[in-house]
Amino acid sequence: MNLDRIASSATALASTTSSAPRSSSGESRHRRLRPPHPIALAAMAAMAAMAAWGALPAAAFAQTTSAGTTTSTSAAATADGALGQVVGAGTRRIDRTLADSESPVDVLSGKDLRRTGAADLASALGQLLPSLNFPRPSLTDASDAVRPAQLRGLSPDQTLVLVDGKRRHTSAVVNVNGTQGRGSAPVDLNAIPLAAIDHIEVLRDGAAAQYGSDAIAGVINIVLRKGASGGEIALEAGQTDAGDGGRGAAAASLGLALGDEGWARLAVETRHQQRTNRAGVDTRDAATEPRRGLVNNRLGDPDSTQQSAVVNAQWGRTDLAQVYAFATFSRRDSITAAFWRTQATAKANNVAALYPDGFLPLEDSASTDIGAVLGVRGEAAGWRWDLSVNHGRNRFDIDVANTANYSLGAASPTRFDAGRLSNRQTVLNADVSRELDAGLFAPLTLSLGAEYRRERYGIDAGEPGSYQNGGASGFPGFQPSNAGGHGRHDEAVYAGIEAQLSKDFSASAALRGERYSDFGNATSAKLSGRYAFTPAVALRGTLATGFRAPSLAQQYFATTSTNLINGALVDAGTFPVGSPAAIALGAQPLKPEKSRHLSLGLLLRPTANWQTTIDAYQIDIDDRVLLSANLSLPAALRAQLAAQGVLVSAGRYFTNALDTRTRGVDLVSTLSQDWGRWGRGDYAVAFSHIENSIRRVADNPALLSANQLELIDRVTLARATVGSPKDKLVASAEHRWGPWSGRVALSRYGSFIVRQSNAANDQTFGAAWVADVSAGWESGRWNASVGIDNLTNRYPDRVIAANAVGGVLTYTQFSPFGFNGRQYYAKAGYRW
User: Fold this and answer.
1) CA nearest neighbour of 38 among 298, 308, 219
2) Which end of the chain is more exposed for a tag (fewer CB within 10 A), N or C?
3) Residue 340 contacts by C-beta under 8 Å, 6 or more apart in sequence?
4) What are the φ and ψ backbone dihedral angles of 733, each rounded to 5 degrees?
5) Which pLDDT tens digit goes with each residue over 159-216?
6) Residue partners of 348: CB distance under 8 A and separation at least 6
7) For residue range 89-120, what is the model confidence (pLDDT) as tens digits?
8) Of all residues in the chain, what percent are helix, strand and coil, respectively (each to 5)?
9) Is 700 exposed, middle or buried (0-12, 13-18, 19+ CB in 10 A)?
10) Alpha-carbon distance 714 to 3, whole Å?
C-alpha cells in the first residue's frame, strides 16, 4: 500500500478545519487522490509484509483485551471455549464471560467475518446477525457512498459504536433522502478494514447508563487484533452473475515486538468495487430521444475504491503503567449517479451543445476518516485505572461531474466543487475500578469514571457555479448560507457496581449523569441480573433508561438537492431547525430522545456443546428525532421562502415528532459437534422478530394544517414502523474435515412495506430466502476458499409500475439483501 499517500492524506485532514476557505474557480479545491490499481497495491502490501515478517524476533506476546486479559477467538474453538470467552461490552468486570453475561451479547470472530462473501464490515454483520438490517440504497446522493445499518429496527444513530471500548466518531453524512435511517448521521462501520478486526461484540441491550448518548438499541464493540506474533496476506476477487460488480481486494496484517514489554500491529487494506446496475429502460422517453429504449440510469452499488489502515500498539506492564494507542485511517472514493437528463431537457436548458444526447450527472465523493486513541493504564493501591484521549474526524468532499449549471448555458463547466461536510469529536476519559470485599459470595466490582467530550460539525460552501441560479444539475452545491461551523461539549460522571450475590445470582447497577452545553442535564440508570436455576437453565433481565442527544448534524445540516417526490424531480431544501425558513414552516427547537428499556432472557444449556438463548425486550422512545416529510409547498409558502433567498419547491426539517415502541424477541442457538474421524461441525440458528409501533404523533403545526400539509406523513410513519422486515432467520452449518471445510447459510428475510403519499400505490414486498455456500482449504500457512452468495439468484419483488418512475426503479432500495443477485468470490491467503 502507498503509505506515503496515506500519511500525506492524514496530514492534510488533520490540518483542515471546517471553516477553511474553498476555491471560487471552476476547479475543485481538493485534488481527488485516485489510488493505484489493486494488483499493484497487493504487490506492495505483500512485499512490506514479508519484509517485516523477516525482521520479527522469535518472542511472541499473548493477545490481550483492553483490560489486559488473555482471550481466544479461534473459529475452531470448542463450545466451552467460546462460552468461556471474556467479553468487554456491557461490563467493567475483567472476568465476565459470554456464558454468564447478564445481557445478550453476540461475539463474532474475525474469521467469522472473513468467511462470508461480504466485502465490508456492515455487509458481513448483515449476513451473520438477524437483529441487524443493512439495505443498499441507490439514487440517494451521499447515502449511496456511506450506507447506514440498523440494529433492532431502530434508527442507525441509536446504536453506539466502540473501537476497543472507546467511543467512535460519527460520519459527517446525513441520510436525508428516502432511505431506511432517513435523518440519521451514524458511524461509518465500513471505515474499519476486516483485516484489523480480532472480533466483534454486539451488545443487544440499552447501555446509555454505561456509555452515554446513542446506546439505545445497543452497542457494537469492534475489538482490534493484538500482539506481536503472527501475520497474514490475503487476496480476494469476485463479481456478480450479471457480469458487473467486479471487485478486488488485497490486505496484510502483521505484528512487531517493541522491546521486551510491548508490541505493535499494523493492518492495511485496499479494495476496489465496480458498479452494478439494475435500472430499467425509461418508458417515458419521447420517440425523438436518441437514447430511447436504452438503459440510461444507474441503480445499484456505486464505483468505489477504498484504502484503509489500522495501527495498534501497547508498551509496559499492567502492574505498573501500560501505554496503549491505536489509529485508524480510511479514504473511500465513490462515484454515484443522479437521474438521467434527456436530450429534451438539455435543449430546453441551453446545454445541448455540451450534451447532444442528454446526460447523467455523477456525484464524485471522497470520504476521509481518521481516528486515534492514546492512553495509559495500570494498577495502584488495588485500583485499576485508565486515562485516555480519543480524537476522530470524518470529512466528506463532493464534486458533481458530467453536469451543467443551466443558467450558464453552453459556457457552463461540466464539473463543480459542491462543498464539504466535516465532523470532529474529542473525548477525554478517566476510569477506575476495583474489587471490594463486602461480605458477599464474591468480591463486588466498583467502577467510577468521568468523561469530557467536544464535538464540532461544519459545512463548507461549494464554488459559486455549483449553487447559483439553481446550481449544478443533479446536486446543487452547498451555499454560503448553509456553511458554518458549530460546536458543543458534554461532561459526564458515572458509576457502576457488579456483584456475585450468591453462587447462582449476579446483579449489577449503573448510573450516569451528563451535562450538554446545548441541551442541559440528562441522567440514565440501569439494573441487570442473572439467576442460574441449574447449570443448564438461567434467567437474565434488564431495566434501563437512556437518552440520545440530537447530533450537531441534525441541528445544523442544510442543503438544497434534487429529490424524487411522488414520481417527480423536485428541488427540496433541508433547513436547520433554527433557520428563518424552518421557523416559517413551524419548526421548534430539538429535544433529546429519552428511552426506557425492559428485557427478559432465558438461557438453556442442555449439553456442554449446545446453548440456546431467548431474549424478549421492549424499548419505548419519547421525542424521537426524525426528518419531516417532504413538504410540497404551495405558491404562497414558496414566495415567502423566496423572499429569504431560498428557491425551493419543497422543504423539510428535523423535529421531535414521535413516541415509538419497539417489541421484539431474539433467539440464538449454537451447537458444536465433534464427529471423530469425520471431522467437526458448528451449527447455528438465530431468529429475530421486531414490532415497531407509534405511541404518539405530535400535533401538526397550524401553518402546515392551513396549507393542507402534514409534518409527519404516512410515508415517514411507515419508514419508522414497517419499512424493514419484522422477521429475520439465519441458519448456518460449517463442517471441517482435515484441511477441507464447507459452509452453508440460509437467511430468510421477512416481508416489509413501502408506502407512498397515495395509499393506492403502497407495496408489500414478500419474504425471501437467500442461500450462501462456500468451500475452503487450509494447509500449513496457506489457505484458499471459493463461494457463492445468493446461490439461487434471488431478487426482491419488482417495484410496481406506479412507483417505478417509467420503469427505471426496478427494485426497492429498502431490500434488506440488496438487489445484485448471485455473486461469486474467491479468496487466498498466507499466514505465519
Assistant:
1) 308
2) C
3) 282, 296, 297, 358, 359, 360, 808
4) -140, 130
5) 999 999 999 999 999 998 878 899 999 999 999 999 999 999 999 999 999 999 999 9
6) none
7) 777 676 667 778 899 999 999 999 999 999 99
8) 15, 45, 40
9) middle
10) 50
